[in-house]
Amino acid sequence: MIRTFQIFGEKISPLKILLELLVIIAGVSLALIANNWNNEKNNRQLVSITLENLIEEIETNQERIQETFEYHQFVVDSLEAMVASKKLDNVKNLLLRRGISPPFVQKAAFETAKSNQAFTHMPYKLTSSIYSAYLNQQLFFDYYWIFIETNFGENLLERANKNLAVSILLDLRSITGLERLMMKSNQEALDNIARFANQ
After folding, report:
1. What is the DSSP secondary structure assignment for residue 7, as one 8-state letter?
2. Is 3 among the domain residues?
3. Is residue 7 in a domain?
4. What is the domain range of residue 59?
5. Mean pLDDT over all residues of the chain?
6. Global pTM value
7. C-alpha dihedral sign at 90, 94, 97, 101
8. Does 2 fall in a domain?
9. How many CB atoms lie within 10 A of CB 175?
10. Biggest alpha carbon–alpha carbon distance for the chain
11. The pLDDT of residue 158
């Protein structure tokens, strides 16, 4: 015989208590499942929007880096020819004609992705390749500003001699190498984003 309990003057069977408890557990479980599903949906949407923004930014950066690289490579080739021929009269004109400006790259989408924690919802390999692309940009600019300070400070260009030309040439070779590295890491990031999107 099933015993009944008396709660607030009402007789309740243990079976009824068990059924009510199961209903409550089922309701809470469904609410948690729905909440998790909604969070996953929001995270997928955040990742999707973030990747779209990153693709646009990295592609734009890639074009700008490519354009600057081509100019810097022209300067390297011209300096090599001047040093080889020992005709250094045009070093100053070559360097001042357009300058040795860096590519104008952006990182707003990257900073936004870091601040809204979108990277926490992406696979490590994808996040790593994106970070690598932007870290290589930082490496480039750190080196670039040292190059500018070393070679163009205090009117060094007034002394157009072989040592100056060779020094600038060596640094420009490093800069073009770093630009190649940036382009490579940007392409790897774009490839990894595309693979992730196609899964």
Report:
1. E
2. no
3. no
4. 12-197
5. 85
6. 0.78
7. negative
8. no
9. 23
10. 112
11. 55
